[in-house]
Every structure is written in C-alpha cells, then in structure tokens.
Write a structure and sequence with these properties.
The protein has 4 helices and 9 strands. By secondary structure, it is of the alpha+beta class. A hairpin with a 6-residue loop joins strand 8 and strand 9.
Length: 190
C-alpha cells in the first residue's frame, strides 16, 4: 500500500484567514527588508494543527477517521481567539512565524480526547503538550534574521479575531515547490 503524508487540523473562518493575509502582506511589503526571505502560507493552508502524522500507510486512514469520530462525539463547537505573533524557536533566530491563540480549555480537551483514542488503538500520536498556533510563514534565509524581531516588535500583541472550531479535518499533504497543497480526506463536525 502507498504512504501518504497526513495531519489532523481545525479549519479557520474566512475572516480570520483574511486578517492573517493582511498581516502577512504588512510584514512582507512594509516591515521586513528584502534580505529576509519568508515563504508565506497561502490562505487555504492556514489552520490549527492537532496532530501531524507524517508519512503513514494509506490503510491507516480508515482507523484514523473512526478514532476521530469517536473522540469528538461528545464535544461541541467552541471559539478560538486568535491573537499574538510568535516565532519558533524564538524571534532571535526564527524559522517559523506564527499567530497564537488565547487559552481554550475546549481545545485542550479535544486534543486530549483525540490522543487517548488514538493511543488506545495503537495509532500514531505526537505525545507532547499542545502549543496551538497557526503558521503564517517560514523564514528561509539566514541573513537578517535579527531584523524579524525588530520588525514584529510592535505587532506581537495583534488580535486577529475569533474563529469557531466547528469541525476536525484529516488532510493529506502534497509537498510542492511553491509550498504544500492540502486535500481534505475526512471531516467530522463538533
């Protein structure tokens, strides 16, 4: 059977995606100098990752969808307050620029429920604390990385708005020269 690259995520509202695009454009056009190269995530790629499976055997898609359906049965929709800019590993040497979110107990409960269901049937699950974020871009050029901290300093507390967590989606990821392309394989409503 073939291997496929997959992840579970929460899609975002169109309004939040527009707000993030505005921030990306602001950073790209006015704040970051040409010496800093950033691969910006396209609007259709903006999401909150719940679990990255990586390359898995395609035969695992069905068990993943069933475990996801069971894990989300008793969970309802909830708000995600998207706010703040951050960087991994940090602003001094950023590789990833991201938007954060206010603590949402429902998000952590969802993550915990998914992890318990996946681990109980032996499916892959990232066993580490959830650090919810939305990747905005990946810094690709070493020179000028210190400039990112300077350029984002006044924007770090930025509020993007609220998006409703309404469904969980299993995406397949295709690596392309211009950035990853995602195809929805399964979704379940919260």
């Amino acid at each position: 059977m073939e291997n496929i690259r997959c992840f579970l995520a929460l899609p975002l509202s169109e309004e939040i995606k527009r707000n993030m695009q505005e921030m990306q454009a602001r950073l790209a056009e006015t704040l970051l100098p040409p010496s800093v190269k950033v691969g910006w995530v396209r609007p259709e790629g903006l999401h909150v990752t719940l679990n990255f499976f990586g390359d898995i055997d395609a035969s695992l898609v069905h068990p993943i969808t069933e475990a996801t359906r069971k894990a989300t049965t008793d969970l309802g929709r909830f708000p995600l307050e998207i706010q703040g800019l951050g960087a991994f590993p940090n602003f001094g040497r950023p590789r990833v620029l991201w938007a954060g979110m206010a603590f949402a107990p429902e998000l952590h409960a969802l993550h915990r429920s998914l992890g318990e269901h996946f681990q109980s049937i032996g499916l892959p699950w990232e066993d580490r604390p959830l650090k919810p974020h939305i990747t905005l871009g990946r810094v690709r050029y070493e020179k000028g990385r210190g400039l990112v901290a300077e350029a984002t300093n006044g924007l770090r507390p930025h509020v993007f708005g609220t998006s409703e967590a309404a469904r969980v989606v299993l995406y397949r990821s295709y690596l392309q020269p211009g950035g990853s392309v995602y195809k929805e394989l399964f979704s379940t409503d919260l």
